[in-house]
Amino acid sequence: MSGSKWLYIGKRLLLLIPTVWGCATLTFFLLKLTPGDPAVQALGPKASKQALAALRDSWGLNDPLWQQYLRFLGDLCTGNLGTSYSAKAPVAELIATRLPVTLIIMVLAAAFAVIIALPLSVWVATSGNRVVTEFVRILNAVAQGWPTFFLGAILLQVFAIQLGWFPIGSVSGGVDVAALVLPSLAVAVSIAPIIVRSLTQSLQDSVNSEYVNFGKAKGLSYRKVLFGYALRNGSISAVSVLGIQVGFLVGGTLVVENVFAVPGLGQLLMDSVMKRDLPVVQTLTVVFGIIVVLVYLITDLVYGALDPRAAKRG
């Protein structure tokens, strides 16, 4: 890897600093504005005022807001993520046990989205048939119009409950990939239509380009020209679109984890929000910000590999 490539990666990684700071700051102050008292959530509404005050003091919730904010940033910089109010366990430990599940769902969802989008895009771009184009367009509209939780509920009912092809409920005894297939598929269906539109347009432009016609004139087979040249160049914009969809990918993962009762970061976040578990919510927001930046970095690297001119410009 060249020095310019390492410089490019270094600049992108530096973006983690303002991203993490922005996510942490925004989350901290938004949580302070939301109603509810973490001490009441922990001890119950019938707890005495003395007990509530003592618990707030032990958590530092009675300190001035600026002191709480600086302490939060200091702990974040030193890696001291604190202890969960509700689980009474280190926040780092809770996140470490659930992070692999969420990452697997994201990777599988991205892979499924590409598997769905690629044949449909090639079919439309190479068929030249208006009926095929309209069929795929309607299919895209239907898929994109379904809420992720609704599609997840259907997949759960049909393939897990009625057919019994996939396990139901929490992942136990480690990461059971079979239990993550349906949640990943539900997320993939929601982002695949956008990739189909982008990839189809790019493939149509590539198929009709001069270099493809030149390849045919040289006697290259249609399959060689399509998959060796047109698809490589046509996939450049699709890679960018897939990277942009990382926000929807993260959001969809949070939803389906609760629909399928999968113990990932999404389920942990929802439980922590309901319980006003501030250390967990604040840390999870930072983690998701880091994931988004790293996915953008990977997208840029793949884009640069497909189009070296973009890497030089970066």
UniProtKB/TrEMBL annotation:
Membrane topology: Multi-pass membrane protein
Localization annotation: Cell membrane
The protein, known as: ABC transmembrane type-1 domain-containing protein
Keyword Cell membrane: yes
Family the UniProt entry places it in: Belongs to the binding-protein-dependent transport system permease family.
GO CC aspect terms: plasma membrane
Annotated TM spans: 12-31, 103-125, 146-165, 177-196, 236-260, 280-306
Record Gene3D superfamilies: MetI-like
Record key words, sorted: Cell membrane, Membrane, Transmembrane, Transmembrane helix, Transport
GO BP, sorted A to Z: transmembrane transport
Occurrences of domain ABC transmembrane type-1 (ranges): 99-299
Primary location class: membrane
